Fold this sequence. Notes:
Layout: E1 6-10, H1 14-25, E2 29-33, H2 40-44, E3 50-53, H3 56-65, E4 70-73, H4 80-89, E5 94-98, H5 105-118, E6 121-125, H6 133-143, E7 150-155, H7 164-175, E8 181-188, E9 201-208, E10 214-219
Amino acid sequence: MNSRKKALVIGSGSIGVKHIMNLIDLEFDVFVFDIAFNNYEMLSHNRKNIKLFYSLNELIFNLKIESCHLLVISTWGPSHFRFFQLAVNLNIKKIIFEKPICCSNFQQDQIYKISKKNKIKFIVHFKRDFNGLEGSIKNILKQYGQKPKMVNVHGGAACLVTNGIHFINIACNIFNEYPIAVFSDMKNSGINPRNKNLGYYEGSIKLYFRNKKFFCISNTNQS
């Protein structure tokens, strides 16, 4: 690898690979850590700009020699806080979390406190912020001079939690506020292809906002 900026991506699943390829397009050299590279063949075509690590100790040793400008955490939620702590120890100042940021309020509070103390900047990746959907909705509302009152989303087996949070984020942005009450009725179908310990939920989530604004999303795993 050369003197270009370097990024570390932890997790090489489908989303991790998208981050890796985008970083290469942005002229980063990329360190990638995973315990099993299911997309090894795809990554191996870009070995000039990618360095793969199966060993966390080996990764840490290399990053103590070569400084890293950015960390992308693209693994399942229960591991996020541990990798955030790794970033702190390696003095990485910019972090992108795939959702969820962590798995408890305590971890969330720690991430905020430690980041403030160490001047770390981080974001949680909501890709639909950039796909034009929210902007299109706002343009339609502006065209007709209307203020949004209700958002409804319905779908099939797309996981109410992991997919639904994107639409909740869009609704909060459209209403320009956070909900004052949340109600949900969810059932885990146990069909998550990523890991048998991860849920795959169907059901509904309802969010109530001020001035009678309302959001509802419902998904069924029967489709």
